[in-house]
Amino acid sequence: xxxxxxxxxxxxxxxxxxxxxxxxxxxxxxxxxxxxxxxxxxxxxxxxxxxxxxxxxxxxxxxxxxxxxxxxxxxxxxxxxxxxxxxxxxxxxxxxxxxxxxxxxxxxxxxxxxxxxxxxxxxxxxxxxxxxxxxxxxxxxxxxxxxxxxxxxxxxxxxxxxxxxxxxxxxxxxxxxxxxxxxxxxxxxxxxxxxxx
Length: 197
Hints:
single chain; alpha+beta; seven-stranded antiparallel beta sheet; 35% strand; dioxygenase activity
């Protein structure tokens, strides 16, 4: 089965000065993306979590999972996806985070990744599987430019390390029904070894 489509269309959201941020739809063939979604839906140990907000504990509106890239229990699908991400972007990704958006009520608030948890100047790459969801990318400084990006199944979104300084990104709740989506995030974390942190 063909994993990669030829000559993916690259959309540039931000340049090297403030990013980069690029979006590539159709990197993973539709049939393969659908099979990966099904495998991860059943094969990942999904967790719920809570966080303090407005002086009370609230549930995080999505499920999540995590693997080190060298984890012996890494699902085969994630190993294949990791290989594609490394080949596409030439980065030594060692951490794989997953978010499961069950429906239109699940979301993630606008945020940027914490720079102390990332190796400087290494990118973050997001693989989308399942239903299309809108990501809102907003520049932090005036003129606060905003992009609403439709993240399709089989697409890859690259955010440069520098982009975390200049942009917030989030997945808003929706007012209409939408199917489930899985986001797979490849990062380069500092201090990782074969045994983790």
